[in-house]
Task: structure prediction
Amino acid sequence: MSVETVTLQIPEILYQRLLNTARATQQPLEEVMLYAIKIGSPPEWDNVPAEFQAEIATLDKLDDNTLWQIARSQKTAADMKRYNMLLEGNQNDTLTDAESPDV
Result:
């Protein structure tokens, strides 16, 4: 793996948090910073099946509050019944043009 050097200015408060974490975990500051960047970076698209890439890319653009709303949302029984009917129709190739997803 090749390595690149980057000079980055970060707010003092963020630097202190990273430094405090490095001290508390007895790790080099560089390792703590690299880990923070790694877990906060976008996914590796090579590991995402092609049929899900567009949807995940859309989710990746959403803010945390919106993502939490999606995660906590619940579908009604009627929504789930409709969803299951559409899934079955898709599997049987019996969806109408109006029911078919735009591809």
